[in-house]
Amino acid sequence: IFDRGDLIPLDWQDPVVWGAGNTNKDAILRRLAPNWDPDDPAFIPELRSAPYFEDHPDALVGTNHKLSLKPEFVNTPPMIPFGSTPIGASMDDFIDWYDKWKLVADTPDGDPTFGCRTVNLLILTDGDETCGGAPCTAATQLYDGRNVRTFVVGFGLAAVAGNTLDCIAKNGGTDAIDFDGDGVIDMTGPIYPGNEDELVDALKQIIVAIQPRPRSFAAAAVPQASANTPDKTYLTSFIPILDEPVWPGRVDAYLRPVPLTEDIVTLPDGTQQTILVPDPSKGCQPDDESQCHLWE
Prior knowledge:
By secondary structure, the chain is of the alpha+beta class. The protein has 5 helices and 10 strands. The protein folds into 3 domains: 1-80, no CATH class; 83-211, no CATH class; 216-295, no CATH class.
């Protein structure tokens, strides 16, 4: 959809491209809904094409036989459907953009959190592929070669088995997603909303699927003592990431016995409880090595 790199920016607040007082986020909103009013949070986006055009007079013919964009939309042209559905070509454009963007983002001067981010592509369409493209192949290239998942929303379409949208989701890694880790598959491929409310719900589902999961905490484990090495207690925490074989995490190592301190936690029912937790303020004392708190 977006064929300009500055429309999927490293910094939402970068005003360089659009001038002072404008952000990349504002620019995207103006293209998606040119009638967007930042001072009116209740505005309704105009998704039709007609309001953005006017009759174009032709001196040779003498009639208004074609349309042109209204002057106020020339610098930020709206996203306009033209009848065909080039899903495959659009995905190929995204692959080309992503490969070039990664060369910039995954550097010390690019996005410092690039390695921690997941990348996802959302296909929102009102039709199947009509231009001879290969969206299923593109979805495979994104998922297998670049670890990019492709979510598919077919607005106003019938869920017909075997259509292109099905294979895009399957090849793109979104045909079997468990949102909450309860063992029940919550997303089984494309979502087919039939109205505005269902479309909003579909987008909410995808946002939930994209968001990283909360941290987990593993119980303490005491390793076997080795020669000339004091026993330690290891506390580990991880950030589970959906469909990733390796989770980022950390290991805190304490010499035994573990120095403890009291902490107050709030339980789900609103009551408070005092618990004992490792005390990171304890340092190594020359006369009492067992009170040493280590980080490894």
